[in-house]
Amino acid sequence: MQEKTAQYNLVVPKWATDDGPANDVAISTRARLARNIEGIPFPVCAQEADLKRVADLVLSTISTGNDQLWFSRLAGKFKVVTPSQFSSTSVRLALIDAHVASRQHVAGGKHCLIVLDDAGSISLMVNEEDHLRIQCILPGFQPMTTLQMVREFDTLLSRKIKYAQTDNYGYLTSSLANVGTGLRMSVMLHLPGLAYLDEAITVLTAAAELKVSVRGLLGEGTKALGDVYQVSNETTIGFTEREITSRIRAVAEHLISREREARRFLAAKKNTDVHDAAQKAWAELTEARALGGEQAMSHLSTLRLADALGLSPGISVKEFKKFLISMRLGSSASSDESETSSLVRSEDGARRAKLVRDALLGVK
Predict the structure, then answer these.
(1) Distances from the Cα of 271 to the Cαs of 228, 312, 333, 351, in angstroms?
(2) Beta-carbon neighbour count of residue 69 at 10 Å?
(3) What pLDDT is stored for residue 343 in this prediction?
(4) Between β-strands 26-35 and 132-139, what pairing exists: parallel, antiparallel or unpaired?
(5) Bridge partner list, 228
(6) CATH number of the domain to which 60 belongs
(7) Which secondary structure element, helix H or strand E, spans residue 253, and what is its range?
């Protein structure tokens, strides 16, 4: 019962429940800062005592002193989650699907913490690849707002925590790609129209040529389930935070425009084909007794496209996002089966199929 409570009460991401700008295509926008603490070995080289120092310092910073009031004003109260305390794989996968933890982090030890704000927007991974991964995720397309919010949280932490940095290189991180500002700005986009027309790969390849990374649903090393992609900056050194944000914003705006063009073309020229595909997807989802994550998301993406074209059967943006965080996709999105074989074995296809069937029964 304790794990069930944690699963449903601690992971309530705002991006999955609220509307946002351009949310017909843009699912969410994330700004993440990588930071390490001066004088303590990076996690990859750290001893358990070092990791404990980091965890204790973070807990002390967010829970005591005058800054506590400022933290509350920014993001409300905080909850602290230790993924290793949950024996259930399903609970840990829920943290991954909510985008508040990575696969690497939920497999870590007792000093790998997640700090979550009750507003569902700000989170902090402690002792992942870096000592601190500070992030803000908002619904829809909001690059400047997410940047502002994550900056504010970072500033509050830096009042008590001295970061590892140099004048020449900026913030020092475990990965060279994050050295500099430490900022990773990303937008999660749903591109079923481009995928239906077999144009998604061409458009996304062009984006990659602009030094923008294109990743799957759950970030680095994962597949694009249900035509959902993340676009983000490749490096941070040599660019200011505003320059990084402006580049990602421009690429995301272009992709949003191309997806909308694809949907208009489909509505005018291919609406019967999409309608037939949606009927087939609906039938398979409502009749299936076991579903893999990739299979389920492919059909749900078709239903979302149908709704966007004004066709039935279909599912709304909110319904699609609910599926993203409810089906334990963390074990299905990896392109490296060896890393997640134990998680894959633990996935219950029958439970996922029942969840989808029950949810679709409530769709008008």
Answers:
(1) 21, 11, 30, 33
(2) 9
(3) 41
(4) antiparallel
(5) 190
(6) 3.30.590.10
(7) helix 241-269
Domain assignment of residue 252, yes or no: no
Question: What would the pLDDT profile of 81-105 be if each residue is shown by its tens digit?
Answer: 888 887 767 778 788 888 888 888 8
Domain-ending residue, one of 192, 220, 238: 192
Tokens 């004003």: give the residue: 73
Q: Measured between alpha carbons, how far is 162 from 181 in angstroms, rounded to an integer?
A: 15
In degrees, rounded to 5, the angle at the alpha carbon of residue 322 between the alpha carbons of residues 320 and 328 is: 110
Domain count of the fold of the chain? 2
d(CA 71, CA 127): 21
> Where in the sequence is the domain holding 333, given as residue range(s)?
267-361
Last residue of a domain, one of 192, 211, 238: 192
Could you tell me the CA-to-CA distances from 120 to 99, 117, 136, 165 in Å, in that order? 11, 6, 9, 30
Contact 203, 231 (CB under 8 A): no
Write the burial class of residue 8 (CB in 10 Å: 0-12 exposed, 13-18 middle, 19+ buried). Answer: exposed
Q: Are 149 and 121 in contact (CB under 8 A)?
A: yes
In a domain, 256, yes or no: no
User: Residue 332: which pLDDT band, with cuts at 50, 70 and 90?
Assistant: low
Contact 158, 148 (CB under 8 A): no
Nearest-CA neighbor of 207 among 187, 231, 188?
231
- Report whether pLDDT(308) > 90: yes
- Which residue, among 262, 177, 240, has the nearest Cα to 212 in the 3D structure? 177
Q: For residue 262, give the nearest of 216, 308, 313, 212 by alpha carbon.
A: 308
**Number of alpha helices (DSSP H) and beta strands (DSSP E) in the chain:** 15, 10
Confidence of residue 219 (pLDDT cuts 50, 70, 90): low
Alpha carbons 152 and 202: distance in angstroms, whole number: 37
pLDDT digits (tens, 9 = 90+) for 349-362: 888 899 999 999 87
* 248, 143 contact by CB (below 8 A): yes
pTM: 0.88
Examine the domain organization and report whether 169 and 286 are in the same domain. Answer: no
